Structures are given as C-alpha cells and as structure tokens.
Amino acid sequence: MSDMESRIVGLEEMVAHQAKTIEELSDQLAEQWKVVEQTRAKLDRLTERFLSLEEQAQEAIPVTRPPHF
Fold first, then answer.
1. Per-residue CA distances from 53 to 39, 50, 61 (Å)
2. Is the dihedral of CA 40, 42, 45, 47 positive or negative?
3. Half-sphere exposure of 31 toward its Cβ, with a 13 Å CA cutoff?
4. SS3 labels along 5-29
5. In this structure, what are the phi and psi dihedrals at residue 30, rounded to the nearest 5 degrees?
6. What is the rounded distance in angstroms from the CA atom of residue 52 to the CA atom of residue 46?
7. For residues 27, 33, 39 and 41, what is the CA-based torsion angle, rounded to 10 degrees?
8. Under 8 Å CB-to-CB from 9, ≥6 apart: which residues?
9. Does residue 61 carry a pLDDT above 80?
10. Which residues, other chains included, contact 1 with Cβ-Cβ below 8 Å and sequence gap of 6+?
11. Quick check: pTM over 0.70?
C-alpha cells in the first residue's frame, strides 16, 4: 500500500469514527431534550398547583384585627 493510500485509509477511518461520535452525541442530545421537556411540563403543573393552593389559602384566612386591639 502506498503512502497516499494509507493516508486515505487513515482519513476514512477518522471520518467514520467522527460520524459515529456525532450520531451518538445527537442521540444523547435528543434524549436530554426529552428530559428537559418532561421537566418543563412538570414545573408548569407544579406552578399551577402552587398558584391554586395559594389562592385557596388567601380565601380561607380572613384578614381581621388581632384580639389585643
């Protein structure tokens, strides 16, 4: 095998390795995006629940003067 052929084979191996790495990173990114979306949805639900509970608490406690006045 000539020097040129060995260089080309080396470059092809490097490109194949990089393509595999890029594919793995893309898969990881897609998986992380799913986790982010799930977390965002959960945060939205918790925010709504908190606001609802906060409204109920404000309605349940009447604002009156303390007994020592």
1. 21, 5, 12
2. negative
3. 6
4. HHHHHHHHHHHHHHHHHHHHHHHHH
5. -65, -40
6. 10
7. -130
8. 1
9. no
10. 9
11. no
Q: Which amino acid is at 51?
A: L
Task: Say whether pLDDT at 62 is over 80.
Answer: no
d(CA 47, CA 55): 12
Name the token pair of 31: 């998986």
At residue 51, the pLDDT reads 92
The terminus-to-terminus CA distance of the chain in angstroms comes to 101
